[in-house]
TrEMBL record:
Gene3D superfamilies: PLAT/LH2 domain. Residues 1-17 form the signal peptide. PANTHER family: OS06G0206401 PROTEIN (PTHR31718:SF47), PLAT DOMAIN-CONTAINING PROTEIN (PTHR31718). The keyword Transcription regulation does not apply. InterPro entries: PLAT/LH2_dom, PLAT/LH2_dom_sf. Pfam families: PLAT (PF01477). PROSITE patterns: PLAT. This is PLAT domain-containing protein. Keywords: Signal. Residues 39-149 form the PLAT domain.
Amino acid sequence: MKLFCLLLVSFFAAAYASSERAIAVAGAGGLLSDPEQQCVYTVYVRTGSIWKGGTDSAIGVTLLGSDGTGVRIADLEQWGGMMGAGHDYYERGNLDIFSGRGPCMERAPCWANVTSDGAGAHHGWYCNYVEVTATGPHMVLAGLLTRRK
């Protein structure tokens, strides 16, 4: 149990230290980091509709697979905000969508930790849910679409 706690603390310390980058490798293990073979992650965040449920803080997410490896996105909006210029993210009732590329995880994400930097005048936040999809790298399939004569 002590080893598990130590590993968990080490993981979060490493994740915090890498917050300068938009997306970072979390945990230890063989993540595919070849730029040509990166995966696409799409994150859907629904803010609750309660009064003062929105926030002006930066929101991040760490995704881990069953093998303990994963990715950390320090600031979703900066990394892959899809809602257009001038959109106010994480406001009451919003469904905000973020998408970008990152190192492929060897296992499907099965654990997520959503974090707030606590900054801004409205730092409290009610997150209704977070949904994540991950797709593998695009591959060239030669001859797949050829016609028979």
